[in-house]
Input
Amino acid sequence: MLEVNSWMTRRAVRRTGSAMRVTMLLAPLSAAAVCVACESVPLVAPTQSTIRLVIADTSLPNGGSTPVTATVTEAAGTPVHDGTVVTFSTTLGAIYPPEAPTSRGRAGATFTAGSESGVADVIAYSGGAVSETVQITIGAAAVGSVQLTARPASLPPAGGTATLIARVLDGARNPLPNVDVAFATSAGSLRDRLVATDPSGEARTELATTTAARVTASVGEASATSSISLDAPTAISIRATPERPVAGQAVSFEVTLRNDARAIRSAVIDFGDGRTARLGAAERLTVAHTYAEAGTYAVTVTATDVAGHVASGSIAVRVEPAPAIPVTVTAAPASPVAGQPVTFTVDVSPPSGAPAVREATIDFGDGSRTSLGALTGRRTVAHVYERDGGYIVTVTVRDAAGGRHRASIGVRVNPAPGISVTVAAAPAAPVAGQSVTFTVGVSPASGAPAVREVTLDFGDGSRASLGTLSGRTSVAHAYRNGGRYTVTATVLDALDRRHAASIGVVVAN
Output
């Protein structure tokens, strides 16, 4: 009875007749029955109606949504009456509202995917009319392809960090947001192994590795792989000659740089003693260095290629202490006198492997010194001591390693023998204009220095040179004016010392 009433009600509402005709169709029914039918039985599609289900997006990410539209048509091809109730059903996710009335033959709802990935079977029905099943792929099930990119794809020789970008697309090559991407790697470590795609369909993580790696991004059955390689390092070779140098000895370093993939931009060598040198971009060169002190030094070459990748290589250099350089000094005569030249013989004999002699100097002990240059072997040098006394003579040899080698000798200089000088005048009381004879005597003692010059000063502004007088000689001189005069005989010896004798002469007018 309810089914008949429902059908009669639909027919009455659908026709456009007057209210009187509706009343006539409903006349056989009691008022109570009509009331009950209106309140408890929904309006559904009539027999032989068809339902066409249309879903806007059949590939959704987890949590995504899409409109669902059911179009209900009667057998005659006309839309069902407005208010016909359509029920929606799905095997995964949810549809809201689950029931919706038609308007102009269409009923609409919204499908919302949950957190579970899979395929949702969606249908719509009303009365005996049922739509065909429409499938919606959700999350991983909606993935059509995965694209994986590594930036950069090549890391420095020592390794580094690369960013992995997985782009997830559905079957129509549209980006899929909010889809979990699983990352895996054959080497190194991943910052995040499971990452959800962003609104542009991309999931990102980072890989830190020191070796080449193969990475994979997977979403359900779809996956993509990419390779990360390491750039070829610069091969560095260092060879030192000699292998066991000594302090102060020049060491030659032969450096070879090789990079088959990229050119060398610059290189620097660190000698390990606080000093460095720039090597430029040459692939092979030789540089020399001298170590001032003994010890073990780490020599390191650091090379940078045009990509900015840095490589280094090192060797250890053992520097032995420099051998001592023997130095001797002798003096002749052994007991000189003041003013007598003393000959010093200096002998510098560097042994094999010793650093080169940079300079040798001799200090005579009296405040004077002489440089002997880079002396190797024997050399003599003379020196005169003006005063008697004891002197320490020191020879100092400075080598290329900064080492100093010394030898000393004591010299005792005795006082020089004196030179006796006398002067006499005749007559004893001369007058102005009268010739006066002066007798000068010069008597050098044994071992005394030679006489260089003898002069006689008459005291009136005139003088006479007696040459290198040794013995006695007479010189005449006449005074023009009377007065008192001091006559002085002066002897200058080979040591520039002066010996003198004087006499007073009174000349009468």
